[in-house]
Amino acid sequence: MSARWTTAVLDPQISGGWAVARGPDGFLVDDNGALFPRQWLKRQALDVLSEHGIGHFDGEPVFLLELRSAGEVAGCGWRGLRQFMLEGDFDTYKLLGYAAQIGTWAREHRFCGSCGQAMTQIHWERAMYCQHCDLRSYPRISPSMIVLVTRGDEILLARSPRFVTGVYSTLAGFAEPGESAEDCLVREVREEVAVEVKNIQYVGSQCWPFPHSMMLGFHAEYAGGEIVMQPDEIEDAQWFNVHALPPLPAGRSIARHLIDLYVARRLGLPEPVLPG
C-alpha cells in the first residue's frame, strides 16, 4: 500500500477532510483533480445516496459521496475510473479504485438480501447491517485468475468483443465455488481456447475495481491442443512472437505486467515491477 494512500473506516459524522464524489458517469473532477474540500463539496447541489469514510491521503481523511445521479457543478466535469488508470497519478487511481468498490458495494446493499428491509451503515467497521435479520454484509471481493500461456518465444493472446479495437490480452476468468485458483486457470484456458497447460507459476495479484475483482496472476506453459475459440467470449486468439506483439493492455494492469515480465526474461531485459 502506498504511503500516500491508506484505507480506513472513518465515521462520516466527523467534520473536515477531503472528499470525492462518484456518480453514474464516474468521478467529479476539476483542473486540480478529483479531491475536493469535503465541506465545500457537501454544499453543492449533489444528489447524495450515501457517505463513507474511506481512508487517508497524505495523512488527511478522505470521504466518498456516492451519488444517485450526476449533477452539475460549476467548473467541474466527470471522468471514468479507467481514464485515471491510464492517465492520472497512480496513488490517486488507487484511492478512487477503492472508493469505486465501496460505492458499488454500498449501492448494492441498501436492502437486506434475506428479508428485503433497509440496511443501515455501521460506522466502526465496513459493513451494512440488517437489524431484523442480525445480518452484516461486507464489501464483496470476487477472486479471478489471469494467466499468460507461453510456448518458447511465443505467447498466447486473445481478444474479447468488449476490448478496445485491436487490443489483445491474456486469458482470465472468475473462480467458481470450490475451485482453487489453479483449477480455475486450467478450466478457463480450456474453455476459452481449448488449450492444455502445465508448470503453473503464481506471479502476483492486483485489485481490479471493475467492479470488485481480485486478479491472481499466473504464468503457464503450453502443454498441447489447437486453439478453438469459445463462441461469444473470444473474438480472436493467436500465438504471437515476443518480437512482433499486437497492441497490448494498459501499462498499469496486471495483464500487461505478465506480458512485459515474460518478454523481459526472454530478451534479457530488466524485469518490470507490478504496480502496487
TrEMBL record:
> Which UniProt keywords are present, listed alphabetically?
Hydrolase, Magnesium, Manganese, Metal-binding, NAD, Zinc
What is the annotated role of this protein in its UniProt record? mRNA decapping enzyme that specifically removes the nicotinamide adenine dinucleotide (NAD) cap from a subset of mRNAs by hydrolyzing the diphosphate linkage to produce nicotinamide mononucleotide (NMN) and 5' monophosphate mRNA. The NAD-cap is present at the 5'-end of some mRNAs and stabilizes RNA against 5'-processing. Has preference for mRNAs with a 5'-end purine. Catalyzes the hydrolysis of a broad range of dinucleotide pyrophosphates.
Name the gene for this chain: nudC
Please state what class of enzyme this protein is.
hydrolase
The reply on keyword Signal is no
Relay the cofactor remark from the entry.
Answer: Divalent metal cations. Mg(2+) or Mn(2+).
Q: Which organism is it from?
A: Pseudomonas urmiensis
**Which intervals of this chain are the motif Nudix box?**
173-194
Task: Report the PANTHER family cross-referenced here.
Answer: NAD-CAPPED RNA HYDROLASE NUDT12 (PTHR42904:SF6), NUDIX HYDROLASE, NUDC SUBFAMILY (PTHR42904)
Quaternary organization: Homodimer.
Q: Which residues bind a divalent metal cation 1?
A: 172, 192, 233
Q: Which cofactor does it need?
A: Mg(2+); Mn(2+); Zn(2+)
Q: Which GO terms describe its molecular function?
A: hydrolase activity
List ligand-binding residues for Zn(2+).
112, 115, 130, 133
Q: What is this protein called?
A: NAD-capped RNA hydrolase NudC
Q: Does the keyword Transmembrane apply?
A: no
According to its UniProt record, which protein family does this protein belong to?
Answer: Belongs to the Nudix hydrolase family. NudC subfamily.
